Every structure is written in structure tokens, then in C-alpha cells.
Amino acid sequence: LFLDVDRLKDVNDTVGHEVGDQLLVQVANRVLHATRPADIVARIGGDEFVVLCVGGIDEQSALDLAERVRLALSGRVMLSGFEVELSVSIGVAIGSAAQFESVSGQDAAIELLRNADLAMYHAKRQGPSRCELYTDEMRAETRQIKVLKIGRAHV
């Protein structure tokens, strides 16, 4: 799972970075409580977190977990006297042993992270507080968008 806190910049800009930092602590704690004991949770920078689900997990179980995390990170939070609306966008990517059989563990991890990140951006484009499962069509769509942007830049 690749999580991005929706509108953290707005929180930082309106009520300050101290409150934004408190919000990130809340997010981390809530993610830890919403995931399974064997799952690995990490903040990878800024307002982005990842959850690595250890062991076999199918698409439906991954989406159920993402939804549980999304719900745990939805709603109003009171921080230093300020009420903040919390929501996250979540991208989900699944990988099988067969899929990554011919690549190193590091390359497999990078590919899963890229796919989950792409799914998260797809979720963000649909609106805040959403979960999306990565599909190969997302990668093709992203390539097409980049080609269109590059083409417009040269016009």
C-alpha cells in the first residue's frame, strides 16, 4: 500500500508545520493500529507512507486492508486546538513470486513501490480519500499523458 495524506500542505500553510507534524504522528499511529501485526509500516518521506504486507495476500484482502486503513485515517482530528480534516489516498499493488521470479528482490520491491505509487496518484486524480488497485492500464495511461504533455510543450 502506498499512502499519501490529502491536503497536508494546506494544513501546514494555514495552521503551521507543528500541527502538520502532529498530524503525521497521528497518521503513523493509526496506520500501525489498522494494519496486521506482520505488516511493515514505514514513512518514506513528507506525507507518504508505505505498508508492506508480508505473506500471501490476494487482491480482495489487500483492498480490504486498504479500506480499513483509509477509514482509520478519515475524519476530523483535534491537534493543538485546531480541528483538521484527515484523509488519505491509497494505492495498492500486488506482486506474486512468479511475477518477480527473474528479478532481484530489490528490483521487485522497486517495481511494487512504483506500481503502488502510480495507483495512489490515480486515486488522487479521482478525488480525496480513495483507494485504487494498480492495473497495467494505469501505466499505459500515464505514458500517454506524458507523451501528450511533451507534445504540447514542443508546440
Structural account:
The structure is a single chain. With 155 residues, the chain is of the alpha+beta class. The chain contains 5 helices and 7 strands. The strands form 2 sheets. The chain has a 5-stranded mixed β-sheet with strand order 2-3-1-6-7. A two-stranded antiparallel ribbon has the order 4-5. Helix 1 packs antiparallel against helix 2. The longest helix is centred in the C-terminal third of the chain and has 22 residues.
Provide keyphrases for this structure.
155 residues; alpha+beta; 5 helices
Major beta sheet summary: 5 strands, mixed
Strand order in the largest sheet: 2-3-1-6-7
Sequence of secondary-structure elements: EHHEEHEEEHEH
Instruction: Name the helicity range.
Output: 40-55%
Short structural summary:
With 155 residues, the protein is an alpha+beta fold. Helix content is 52%, strand content 21%. β6, α4 and β7 form a beta-alpha-beta unit.
Task: Summarize the topology.
Blueprint: E1 2-5, H1 8-15, H2 17-34, E2 40-45, E3 48-52, H3 59-72, E4 75-79, E5 82-86, E6 88-92, H4 105-126, E7 131-133, H5 136-154
Parallel strand pairs: 6-7
Antiparallel strand pairs: 1-3, 1-6, 2-3, 4-5
Helix pairs in contact: 1-2
